[in-house]
Amino acid sequence: MVNRPSIVLVTCHDLGTYLHCYGVPTPATPNLDRLAGEGLQFTNAFCVAPQCSPSRSAIATGRYPHSNGVMGLTHHPFDWDLYPDEKHIAQILKDLGYATFLLGHQHVTTNPSRLGFDLMFHDRRGEAVVNEFRRIVQAHDFQASPAYFEINLNQTHRPYEGEGLDVQSQREVFVPGFLPEAPESRDEMLQFYRSVEVADKLVGDVLEIVDQYGLRNEIIFVFTTDHGIAMPRAKCTLYDPGLRVSLLLRWPAGSFPTGQKIDSLVSNVDILPTLLAMIGIDPLPEFLQGKSFLPSMVDDRAVRDEVFAEKTFHSYYDPMRAIRTDRYKYIVNFESSFLVEVPGDIQMGVIFRRFTQLYSATQHPVIELYDLESDPLEEHNLAGNPDYADIERDLRGRLLQWMEATDDPLLQGPVASPSYRKALNVLKESP
Questions:
Q1: What range(s) does the Sulfatase N-terminal domain occupy (predicted)?
Q2: How far apart are CA 83 and CA 27, in angstroms?
């Protein structure tokens, strides 16, 4: 057997880039800061979709949601699922001789047994997940076979958990610019940051176990999140607060200089191709749609000029597609809906309840174009502005080319949901 490194992939919910190592001052995240210092920190990492299941499906398959089938949430009553022929990272690595373990949340299929895990531990309590990881690490023979651990922590999903954030007053809480400057924003962000600190502690526990059992130089350790934070105008939108994610990666010691920041664009659909390249798979499987960003890690070569993003379903049908370059964002909204979708868990928060009109009073336009250099909060739509006609034309062509190359079903018309198909089948049943 080829001597390949083991892999630990840790994910959190709804975290965005709200860690101290990403420049956010309020939450203390010493363990994730340590991971960034010992490895690589990607400062321009984006998810392909601003919702849990579609984004996680891209990480798991190296393919976009509209290509792998997960265009909405997988749990009931939404019931989206991977297409039958899709291969999950666990099955791919299992075929390469890896023992495969899932610890915590699973949200990419309605049938987890198809994914290729040797063991699935579905308890979402953070302490239980850490203890199960310790048990497996202690029992597993890493000389006999490398292991793939997928640890999906339930933090920092609402309702938030945690207490005792070290701030003197609510005024010290960092509030991002896309939220209203109001006590309600500081209150919700304070609750969120407490949960971030819980997540950081759990990641620290996992790192400690790796070190305790002498595996530091045998494991590729990756930390990321599914999408942006669960706040209005972030999660479920194609604006940067919904798409920008944390991505930290540590190779076995000596593989590259530590504490480096990679500024080139990367997408989370690229994580699987990169991991396969890191363990020596060459050439990469042709079905992958992501790109390996290993060249960016080795000598800071950019592998992308743009990232693509999509949303089709979440709470309701709200299809949109986007292309983002270093400077510009171009969004196409295929249906008339609220200016931004605010999922039910966010609607329960005090920000939305006070500022409902900010998000629900109007519909989003068909086309949105933003100059991220002069307008990082994406507040001034430049679509139709003659001064940006060439930019708009170029981005429109590149987005359409990507949709055609990936066989996006939106090009054929509206996308039917599992609920629609079930209802139609019932309607057509003979009396």
A1: 6-281
A2: 39
Instruction: Kindly report the CATH number assigned to the domain that includes residue 244.
Output: 3.40.720.10
What is the tens place of the pLDDT at every residue in 76-112? Answer: 999 999 999 999 999 999 999 999 999 999 999 999 9
Whole-angstrom CA distances from 209 to 39, 213, 215 are 18, 6, 9
For the cut 70, the answer to whether the pLDDT of residue 430 exceeds it is no
| pTM, two decimal places | 0.96
Looking at the fold, whether 370 and 288 belong to one and the same domain comes out as no
Q: Is 261 helix (H, G, I), strand (E, B) or coil?
A: strand
Q: How far apart are CA 340 and CA 60, in angstroms?
A: 27
Distances (CA, A) of 229 to 143, 274, 421: 39, 25, 32
Q: What CATH number did the domain enclosing 402 receive?
A: 3.30.1120.10
How confident is the model over 387-396, as pLDDT tens digits? 999 999 999 9
Model pLDDT for residues 156-175, shown as the tens digit of each residue: 999 998 765 555 455 678 99
Q: 10 Å Cβ neighbour count for 32?
A: 26
Q: Does residue 335 share a domain with residue 298?
A: no
Distance CA 335, CA 110 (A): 28
Same-domain pairing of 196 and 289: yes
Structural domain span for residue 390? 308-424
Q: Are residues 116 and 195 in the same domain?
A: yes
